[in-house]
Amino acid sequence: MSDALSIGAASKSSGVSAKMIRHYESIGLLPLAERSNGNYRLYGPQDVHNLRFIHRARSLGFPLETIRELLALCRNRQRSSSQVKKLALTHVATLEAKIAEMQEMAAALKHLAQNCHGDERPDCPILEGLASDSAARCH
Amino acid sequence: MSDALSIGAASKSSGVSAKMIRHYESIGLLPLAERSNGNYRLYGPQDVHNLRFIHRARSLGFPLETIRELLALCRNRQRSSSQVKKLALTHVATLEAKIAEMQEMAAALKHLAQNCHGDERPDCPILEGLASDSAARCH
DNA sequence: ATGGTCCTTCCAATCATGGGAAGGTCAAGG
DNA sequence: CCTTGACCTTCCCATGATTGGAAGGACCAT
User: Which of A102, A114, B54, B125 has the most neighbouring CB atoms within 10 Å?
Assistant: First the structure.
């Protein structure tokens, strides 16, 4: 047990904040941590591995519930890679849908801004586009 | 006052849900609505205009606090179009930053998925990439 | 023993939206 | 007149991920 880390050390080693480590434990994403004499949480190599896994998955935008499934698959030697791939590709599709949505927003907004003088006069196509009393929808 | 709408009618006419109309009022984004004898909220043409404005601004992804500023500018005849344009372009930059972030996520994930067989075997580069005991960071 | 740093728990805030309960109001029809 | 059903009211709670802080206990070095 000489390599057990405190939550602060595990946080530094994994990139997950101590706050979040406690939170993940509280929602059952991580197993209940071992405790020291002084009731401090203790983390072994496997725990740190899990934390790093979560950190990387979060940085790829996976929601926690999907990470829960990914962790289960990671532990399960009977898994099939198709299960993992399916989760990954579903997430890619989600990301791409959001990207497309935001690109539409940005394009529409740039189009409006393009015609705005941006000077001291009150005249503004952006506000007109938002108010659009003329109900001129783009299509 | 013959053209005053109930919250349900105003909702249909503006595209903003009744729940949200009440919420916007409660946070001061909209003025307190007039009330009927039976304490129902009543909405006139100007109110519906505001609701539509909010709906369009939300559909462009503006956060409520920015919409608050946009509404103030919309009401203010002394505004300068540069104020509006600044809010719009700041939001475009925010959108583009998020888009870029998500594109990186999607690209990294597609790269991992590309090498995954997606069959019944447990072997999986995606999980390996997330676990990455080999600590192979991309750069 | 004392200060500083770590830890513990709990509560609350963010952002925008929605769900639902418990009850009041209104218009139409029996 | 009374019921029915659709609408409205307020209030509380949930989402998703993270962060902030308060109040208190534990640890370690000087």
Answer: B54
What confidence tier does B119 reach under pLDDT thresholds 50, 70, 90? Answer: confident
Among candidate residues A59, A79, A99, the one where a domain is terminated: A79
> Residues A5, A66: one domain?
yes
Using CA atoms, how far apart are residues B80 and A83, in angstroms rounded to an integer? 55
CATH number at residue B4: 1.10.1660.10
Nucleotides of C under 7 A from a protein CB: 6-9, 15-20, 24-26
Residues A73 and A88 in one domain: no
As a whole number of angstroms, the distance between CA A107 and CA A92 comes to: 22
Query: Which helix (H) or strand (E) is A57 found in, with range?
Result: helix A45-59
The CA-atom distances, in angstroms, between A60 and each of A121, B12, B31, B44 are: 44, 38, 41, 47
Q: Where are the alpha helices (DSSP H) in chain B?
A: 7-14, 18-26, 45-59, 64-75, 81-114, 125-131
- The answer to whether residue A131 scores a pLDDT higher than 70 is yes
Nearest to A74, CA basis, from B126, B11, B37, B32 = B126
Residue B131 has a pLDDT of: 87
Out of A84, A110, A132, whose CB is closest to B127?
A: A84
Q: Which of B82, B113, B131 comes nearest A88 by C-beta? A: B113
How many residues are there in chain B?
Answer: 139
Q: How far does chain A reach from its first CA to its final CA, in angstroms?
A: 66
Q: Do A78 and B127 touch (CB under 8 A)?
A: no
